[in-house]
Amino acid sequence: MEGSMEGFSAQCRNCGRERAAPGDRFCGGCGQRFLSGRLTFRSLWGELLNRFFERGLLRTLVDAVRSPGGVIRRYVDGQRHRYVNPFSYLLVGVALSLLLFNLTRSETFDQQIRESFTPMVELLGWNEAQLDAAMALQNTMSENTSIYMLLLTIPFALLLRLFFPGAQVNLAEVSVFALFSFGHAFYLDVLAVVVQLFSDNLNLQIGLTVLVFNVAIGVSAWGFFGRRWWAVVRSLLAYWISYMAYSSLTAAALMIYVTKFAGVG
Fold first, then answer.
1. Number of domains in the chain
2. Best exposed site among 5, 46, 114, 209 by fewest CB in 10 Å?
């Protein structure tokens, strides 16, 4: 059989579609490679490399370095087979950032975070147990940054839709923009982690992270909305409004929890 001689099956094992021509390597129906024989470590490794280097994360990263807004625009316009899903892109970026951060985290850095609560301790009269509770809750929030960022994309996308009315973009499209631009920021934020290797300055790392997010969102907006400065300004404004509102709510929830429930009894 000609298909077996070439190392490929004559029928797609994913959707059952027949191979149209002997030289076809991929199914015209679902895009999966025509397979032959049982699964082996060699074929498993080859599939992994194929997805990672050709159609997966690395392809998205490389293209995003060149034009983050272009990647988002192409994804929205239908070129989705070559890029990773925006949810996965963001979550992997968050996971990478958290992994590197925890590897470089030092006692000095933790002490600076603890000292950042000093104004609240003085203002609200927290005791040592309440301060410990605040630190523990802060650490829990840091460990769940992926959830935090996914939730933050909701008000960000809603504001983007409000700031770009009409038929130019819909809510689903600006949601993809939010996910991808946040993902870009987390991959770029590796620079802040590198700074942490050589400096235990909390303010420096926070400042660099803020700069990275503004650059990532601004550059993404420039490419996605057609190289318009007003689009960059509106996107950054939507980000800052949603970020400040969301941060205020989480900070208020932290203070209420620590003040009312932690360290009591």
1. 1
2. 5
